[in-house]
Amino acid sequence: MKRWLVLSLVAAAACAAPLVAQSGAPDIAYDANADLLKLPDTIHLGEAAGVATNSKGHIFVYTRTGAAHSSVGTSRTFYKAGSRLFEFDQTGKFVREIGQGVYGFNFAQAVKIDPQDNIWVVDQGSSNVIKFDQDGRILLVLSRKPEAISVRPGARGGGGEGRGGPPPEGRGGPPAEAARGAGAPGAAQPAGGGRGPAGPPGSGIPGDSFVRTAGVAWDKDGNIYVADGVATGAGNARVAKFDKDGHYIASWGQRGSEPGQFNSLRGIALDAQGNVYVADAGNKRIQVFDGRGTPKAQIANIGTPAAICITPGAHQFLYSSNSNDSESLDNGEIYKLELDGKIVGKFGRAGRLPKEFNMVNAIDCRSENELLVGELGNWRVQKITLRAR
Amino acid sequence: MIRCFTAGAFVAMILAAAPGYAQSKAKAQNVPEIPYESVPNFLKLPPNLYLGEGIGVATNSKGHVFVYTRSGDTRLFEFDQNGAFVREIGQGLYGFAFAHAVRVDPQDNIWAVDEGTNMIIKFNPAGRVTMVIGRRPEAVEELTNFTGQGGYSGANKPYSFNRPTDVAWDKDGNIFISDGYGDSRVVKYDKNGRFVKSAGTRGNGQGQLNLPHTIAADAQGNVYIGDRSNARVQVWDNDLNFKAIYDQVGSPWAICISPGPHQYLFVSNSVPDNGDSRAAAQTGEIYKMELDGTIVGRFGKAGKALKEFSTVHEIDCRNPNELFVSEITDWRVQKIILKAQPAKTSAGAGK
Lengths: 389, 351
Fold this sequence. Notes:
The complex is a heterodimer. In chain A, 5% of the residues lie in helices and 35% in strands. Chain A has two helices and 26 strands. In chain A, the strands form seven sheets. In chain A, strands 1-26-25-24 form a four-stranded antiparallel beta sheet, with no helix packed on it. The relative contact order of chain A is 0.15. By secondary structure, chain B is mostly beta strands. Chain B is built from three helices and 23 strands. Chain B is elongated and about 100 Å long. At the A-B interface, strand 11 and helix 2 of A face strand 8, helix 2 and helix 3 of B.
């Protein structure tokens, strides 16, 4: 790996200049198929938060659709439904739904397919990462969905718990753990929701307790890297690493803007050397780490990276979407980069028409020139074919 | 169609109402009556569909009728020009929560306006979404606005609980309920569900409880309470009087007493569900004990792989050598076969 950016890390962090997207990058010609996926009459995509392909070219879409439900007539508010996972074949024909009614399917964030074609679902609502095998059976679950809604620490910055009352279900354990978990000052310790000893803001606990999980990726040994989490201002802001069986290995990061700090993680990807690329959207940069969490570089001229993807193969490329937010149709272009951050080109802009993008939240780049792009704002997945320049 | 009378009458109608009425009385006077009829039962729904509040209606160029209704869910139905049901549009749609209007544009696209999700949704004539404007607020951003855990109440009522946790029976069928997160007690009922007695307050003294999470009874009618946050098993007699404490096996999330002439007590010192790897390093095992608290042995450790335990929440021990163990955090049940121990050991009897 090149280390050309390492020295600039300090300078970039100290510099208050706005990190703007690279408007001078060359345009890449492309075509789009906005009508690829054929759904049954009774099924509609909602916000297409996640899209991924497996080795056979089947397409998996994890979408925020239907309504999330909460129960009434209970002293606490329980929360279910809100998202569904669909599989299509390589032509876009509907194959099946996977995980119907699964406990942790609440607010879709991402779906990823590992090299063994296992299907990994990342949910912001439950904060679960759920591994399904090819047959749709659950093999592994990381983190735990809050039992009742307000167990979650304040998504808007208010510490939700640890302010009097009994410890919630499951925070007991050994007395020392319970005491520390319940006794942490709620507002001062948003990370992990007061579930552990206070550490730097956003650093979470050493384990699989996530807050609005953002993404998942693997190295060649099958170790699991989780980007945790999406929220700005409160909650977790770190990367957690586990072995292939889900045993905790390490965690790095906290809330902030220095190298190695995060503010609203939106995605994670690894290259063939095991370097970890994290979409640090709130800081308008992609940070690059080695597999142990040592900062190596940052890529900071591509706007707000709301979705990233690294292609397989001998020459790997990095795609990053400078997605618009829900109150604008500005930006929206997707960058193609070398792994060292050099921009190859860009394509697309924000809008509602075919070929345009509205709040891209997922890019699948198993094929370098045939991308699948999932949009929150247009409730669709587009197949993008990049033409040779 | 009759186009009605004067425009002036309409202008008059929209002027201010008298105070106290939402709808004003028309000022137009001596307006001629128009004879009319209503077509009975025009819309014919399948037997399993019902209209709720009739919030929106519109027709397309072919005379098809679209009805946007607040039914059990907010739904959009299409009928033909004769009122025959054609189909539902947008079933389970992310943008449907609380209907407000439906319109059909000159190209026969169907537009739904939903005041619950704050969205405008455009369907093509085939009923597929082609555009949306506005955005349903993110559910995760709303989560902190809901009712919380509820505090400890200690209400101690005879027939109502506060997050009860478990149930057990003695040989006469008396019912014992551990209650729970919001109370700290055990409640006894007779086999017909009539209240007998309640015992226990929050605390860490003898006979006090802090999160009674699991309960079982032995053949003599003693009850064993997993006093989870106090990290001990308490044994009470059949009248809920304190007898013993076993505090050498961690925090009992799940206990089970096997049947038969020689009963065993299984206790799970479950790994906390908060994912903390430091706690996982020192918890997660299950103990097999004699009823007097003598430890027969232990098995398992925290983790998500096969044979590991990810926050055990209940144990079935109908056969003490073939257990079923349910786990919170890896969403599964394992069947555990216990093999004969090479050499019997005992350690740490209860006090």
